[in-house]
Model the fold of this input.
Amino acid sequence: MIPKAIQIVKDDIDRQFLPFVRKPARYIGGEVNQVKKDLSACDVRVALCFPDIYEIAMSYNGLGILYEILNGIDGIAAERAFAPWLDAEDILRQKKLPLFTLESCAAVRDFDILGFSLTNELCYTNLLNMLDLAGLEIRSENRTDDDPIVIVGGQAANCAEPLSAFVDMFVLGEGEEATVELVELYRTIKSQAGSKQDFLLAAAKQFSYVYVPQFYDVCPDDNGPSYLTTKIDGLPVQFENAVVKDFDAAPIPEKPIVPFVQAVHERISVEIMRGCPGRCRFCQASFCRQPVRIRKVDTIVEAAKKQYAATGYDTVSLLSLSTADYPHLDELLEKLQGFFESRHVGVSVPSLKVQKQLQLLPKMMTSVRKGGLTIAVEAASENLRMLINKPITNEDLFAAVRAAFEAGFLKVKLYFMVGFPGETEDDITQIADLAYAISSLRKEVDGKVANINAAVSWLVPKPHTPFGWLGQKDRSYFENARRLILRRKDELRARFLQFKFHPFDRSILESAMGRGDRRFCEVIETAWRKGAKFDLWNEGFDLTIWQEAFETAGLNLEQEAQKGYDPKQRLPWSHLGGPDSDYLLKHYHQAMNVFE
Done:
């Protein structure tokens, strides 16, 4: 690998780009706490890429962690590059300007490594679009040794095959330590004048969390011992998630970048626990992020203080898959209150699971903002909650909500999901009944009904979960579910209940893409070439494009979404980290036996 000159395009961006875009602050960089190094003096240059717009990317905690880790290493520079919005992309293409980083206005194609964080299947086309905007071939086999190494981490890495044609390396699991190990390996090989292939092969041999698709062929049948065969002797065919064992010592951003444009989340964010003891059977994160690890109370409080000093944000957000399961939550809230209350800084406690702990939580939340309480109920009936491994009784749920109203909460937001195995129309109708009952609990406190916002999504069977073997319910099922809920709301004359339903089409596409195999590479490329991008956005999503792309590959979108697997069948993702299949099958059979 020969060191490359970095093209700086700042003058062109200032003159030909920024005056013509609607939100130039998305693209100018220079924010408070930005880190800008001399790229020409660094051994390794990493572009941290996020396949969505600035406001979304700057709210992703994982990006901030990697940014601070890498820039904290001498000789390593990390800069940010995000997907330009539709108007900005048009200008880049019209003026023939390359995708650039925010810190230095440097051409992304000239970096050593492009590290993409992919958190959703509907961002896949944006990855291809960013590569193309950078002036790179989208397929890895067509890129040269002088081109940067394209690495993907995040949720997509645990079901990598649909992107295998476009990505040089997938990093499975947690990135704090893995990122440092890979960058240092790259620096060593680069200093020895090694090639890109030398690095990829060395990483594939050395790290069990690294998957390099080009070194493998897919087995021709579904019944072999492994999904893969190796092209090179000595490579593994089974991979493991990287795990940060000492989570308390893992880096926490001390100086997060303060965005120029209002981001989705602008707050002090500290991850207090990793993993989840609940094991909801539809949740990929709870099965893939194991074991459960916690941070010490003092570690969290000190991190929050440092971020406050560096940002001035007025809210502290405690991040985890299930904050209510943090074992020292009362002590943590008390210490945060002791420091932040006089500074008029509130505490946000998201991801609350309704358990007996939650009944006590409102009593401790004197410093928590009380505009609304968010609860992920998931299923309205107690039987369905048992099936999904979320054993919450209505008695506990009502006690928790009543206590929250007594503590000063005024509104409640509820999350439900439809499409579970064994679900009946009565189970679906109960969603409106339960929301109504929760709203009425406030009457016992102040004589008023509470406004309830209920979000209803459709079950998307995920890889590495017990429900990964199931097919998704069909469109007519979800359409009927929506009618049942709204009809029951009308019967109750409950204007104070507001239901928001996730779009059917996107859930169907997510189900198909999330459990796909290498055939889906053709689907994604075809869809992108037909104009698919920003599929998470109303302005970008076009179902017709995806239906045609599936047809071009000889597939049917809805059939792929509804496709189920035999429990004995080898799965397209079984080699890519996650729990042992026997463990998942145990949960699967327990779920299937709930109604027997």
